[in-house]
Amino acid sequence: MKGMITICRKELADHFSSTRFTLLFYLILMVSMVIAFMVGTGLKEELKDVAKPTFVFLMLFTSPGKFLSLIQFISIFGPIIGIVLGFDAVNRERSTRTLSKLASQPIFRDYIINGKFLAGLVTIVVMMVAIVLMISGLGLLLIGVVPGPEEVYRLLIYLLISIFYIGFWLGISILFSVSFRSMATSALAAIACWIFFFFFVPMGAGVMADMIAPFDPSQASQAPELVVKNEQTRKAISLVSPMTLYSESTTIILDPLRKTTQSLILMGPFERLSISRFQNPLTLSESVHIVFPHLITLVAITLVCFAISYAIFMRQEIRST
Amino acid sequence: MNGQTIIETQDLTKVYGEQTAVNALTLKINEGEVFGFLGPNGAGKTTTLLMLLGLSEPTSGRAWVCGFDPTREALKVKRVVGYLPENVGFYDDMNAVQNLLFISRLNGIPDEEALVKIEELLNLVDLKPEPKKKVGEFSRGMRQRLGIAEVLLKNPQVVFLDEPTLGLDPDGSLQMLNLIQSLSRDKKITVFLSSHLLDQVQKISSRIGIMLKGNMVAVGRIEDLAKEKLGLEEGQYTLEELYMKYFKEGQS
After folding, report:
1. Most CB contacts within 10 A, which of A1, A158, A212, A267?
2. Overall CATH class of domain B5-90+158-251
């Protein structure tokens, strides 16, 4: 265990002192702060002379502002953090010939990969906690509303989901760094995965849904069940993407008024109006209940990625050349 | 010289797919010996080293290093064995002391004890602990010497040295050879030396082994092998002539 902690400490020191990490951290922090600032000033304007709604503090994270919400921003750029932290974790040691040195020390071989994963995860925790705290501080100043206990709990769960989400990308980039000898190849493979999940899965989900459950848009009002079936199919396919899992789960957690992960709700304007009269926010446990499958899937895919890298690494022969 | 057996292998074999890298290697090396391990590239020398270090699992056969089986008791072997690979790698953004301290922590040596030892070892290998000088700025010779210091950090009983003088200038090579000899002579450390520089091996080895295409074709004292193979007495031959004789026979 001591060996793993030694490797983890060294990796942490490497991460926090590396220029690329510092640049990325400040970039993400800066963009997050700009988004929070814009959303905060927007909210301040909207809420002027109006009774403040419940959970107004969480709107800092969910309101889209002028371009995108913080949730969307982390959903798109969070993977980059994971990739930067892990794409050269093992193959850099191989190319600098330090892997054989590490492996010839009296430590279990899995301590090397475990220490690296743990250090990456700790870095993600530090980074996300810092970003959420900075945004919360800025939000307090801008909208002048102190978050209630439930909002704090919801933010903590949001943090946990974000850590697992970025942890998944760390796992996938470590997997590539174990599988490929070249650092450039592992970085490219991780970025290709990111592009695949970000662009192609949503596009492909629509196309596949139209093939599996087709409907004629001009006849949609006559056959709503076909529209629902098409939407359900598209949804099920797009859940393959960790980005969808993350966006849906964090939106539900941070927006207690959202009661479903479904984006398609077939309702007339009068039905909508009458429902909104009796609309109460979900309790925290109800929100967690809705997104529980998403959370389990996120944790599972992160662990699967790590388990595959672990298995490959343990079977590899470590040579000095 | 003829102390207890410290490295022993019995029919040690490693097969990669269709290719046999090491074929039924049977060998005994005694405590305090400098054993020269010779052979052309691809002969199976590094594969043997990796199996003895517990970094690669043999396909069949067994090995013992200091009484421990490297396959089943890899950690125990690694505790008593130092390994200096060919082209030793370091963390270039750390200085010499930081590099050695990291390795000492992996070996469970307390920092206070390690720092004293590190200073001692840096003196031994003629390196000054310069905090501002990163290892990335070290010359090839300095890196090799730092590698030796790193290997000695855990007070090993056996050291595996793979081309320790590669790329060193004549003076650096001489210093390194003297250091290797003193390890065997003064500290009773067994040295398993893999090298292509035959004149150096001849100078410091008590016994040699020649590997060709995965097979150990000769093991013994250089004088005995020369007498048997070349029919020449000491001083009438070089290790190169002896090696080439075996090599040509192996080729034919």
Report:
1. A158
2. alpha beta
